[in-house]
Structures are given as structure tokens and as C-alpha cells.
Amino acid sequence: MRILITNDDGINAPGLAVLEEIAHEIAGPRGEVWTVAPAFEQSGVGHCISYSRPMLVAELGPRRFAAEGSPADCVLAAIGDAMPGRPDLVLSGVNRGNNAAENVLYSGTIGAALEAALQSLPAIALSQYLGPETQDADDKFEAARRHGAEVVRALLDKAPWESSNDYRLFYNVNFPPIPAARVQGVRAATQGWRPDTVFTTEAQTAPTGRRFLWVKGGPQHRPTAPGSDAAANLEGYISVTPMRADLTAHDQIDTLARVFA
């Protein structure tokens, strides 16, 4: 198996090293693991692509490249230039912090998996929830490191991977913010919604007198509805959410049709 790995935390991020371990375990001794990751951190860029400017891609070693672009750019760079032939699987992460609930819409980690799915490639995004029990740990990615390959293998062997003319499925995996030994299991979950958790801005004046705005995230440890991703993670479970690029609110189509009847 030939696996492409990428992330949004950057080529030198510790979570990418964890993902490389997971990928090598899945690929096996005869497989290949290719890395094409952003040269610098690209958190929060979502599914952005560098449509209006070129990107510099540097080869750092065998099957290892850094791109001055977004995570979605990295997928495009890999399949269009860096790799001879297409990968069998794309893994994105392991993100430092959760990509549950509203974070899904901003995440470059998700953006890479989404781009892979749009390119008709099987893709999985993996993220490590952080919290009080992991912030002082020697290995903040322990849960992902210990359980990541098992979850990926189960998805590859048993989960649906249809590739019809519709938007292709991809999977969003979040590991709970607890030590690996205390992980309760794996739950299929919907994307949640954290009430009152939105991004805001905070102003700061530099010594030069210039005014800058910092973007701040909201509280990450408010549980979402039962059966959704963050709720499962805060209960000690790994959440797995099937996703597609289709943003249509299908439950409102009939109502909207009556409005314009």
C-alpha cells in the first residue's frame, strides 16, 4: 500500500511524526509512506487552495516534501507532481487539538482529507483532543499513537468507501483527551455543535502604536449533543464521523420548494 500523509501543523510537527508511525504500520514492510506537508503551520485555513499564486515545493529527503501552501495544496502537489502515481490512501494529521464540532469547518487537517476525497482518494483525518489530563503529559499524542493504526485498519477493512458519482465519503477521527490506557472504545458519531463556542477577536497595541487583532477560539470542553463527536471524546471514546463535501441542508429542500412554488 502507498500512503500519503500530510497535516496543517507543519512538516516539523510532532503529530506528523505520530502519523508517520501509524502509516508505516498500515503500509507494511513492502508499502510506501510519502510525506507532503506544509513548510509552515497552516492551522485554520480550511479547504483553502493557492489558486492565484504558485507554491514552492522542496524535497527534504526520500519521499518527504515540504510545500509552501495549504494542506489541500499538499494533496494536489503530491498527486500532481511529487509522487509517481496516485496513493492508495491519504491520512491527514495527527492534529494538535480536536477537530470536532465547529472546528471541522475551519480545519486544514479536514481540508486535506476533503481535497483527497474530491480527488476520488480514500482519506482519513486524525486529531488528538487536548485537555487537563494531557497538557503535562510527556506524550500528548499517546491516545492517537496507541490506537490510531487500529482505527484506520478497521475503517479500511469494514467501513463503506463508495466512489460513485456523488461526493465521496471520508472520515474524521478524534482521539479523546485522556491517557491511552483509559480510552473506552470507538463510537460512530455525528458532527456536534458547541453552544456559544465561536471564534472572536482580541485587540492588542504594539509598541509602535499599531493595532493588531488576534483571533481566539472558544471553550473546547463543552459537550455537544449525545451521539456527536465532542460528547463522545469527553466521555473517553474515540469518535469516527463519516463526512462528505456536500453542504446542502437536505432536510430543508422541500420547505424551500414550497416557498417558491
UniProtKB/TrEMBL annotation:
Keywords: Cytoplasm, Hydrolase, Metal-binding, Nucleotide-binding. The keyword Nucleotide-binding applies. GO terms for cellular component: cytoplasm. It catalyses: a ribonucleoside 5'-phosphate + H2O = a ribonucleoside + phosphate. Its main location: cytoplasm. It is found in: Cytoplasm. It is an enzyme of class 3 (hydrolase). Its cofactor is a divalent metal cation. Transmembrane segments: none annotated. Its EC number is 3.1.3.5. SUPFAM superfamilies: SurE-like. A divalent metal cation binds at residues 8-9, 43, 95. One of its GO terms (molecular function) is metal ion binding. It holds the Pfam family SurE. Residues 3-194 form the Survival protein SurE-like phosphatase/nucleotidase domain. Binds 1 divalent metal cation per subunit. InterPro entries: SurE, SurE-like_Pase/nucleotidase, SurE-like_sf. The keyword Hydrolase applies. PANTHER family: 5'-NUCLEOTIDASE SURE (PTHR30457), PHOSPHATASE, PUTATIVE (AFU_ORTHOLOGUE AFUA_4G01070)-RELATED (PTHR30457:SF0). Nucleotidase that shows phosphatase activity on nucleoside 5'-monophosphates. Belongs to the SurE nucleotidase family. This is 5'-nucleotidase SurE. The lineage of its organism: Bacteria, Pseudomonadati, Pseudomonadota, Alphaproteobacteria, Rhodobacterales.
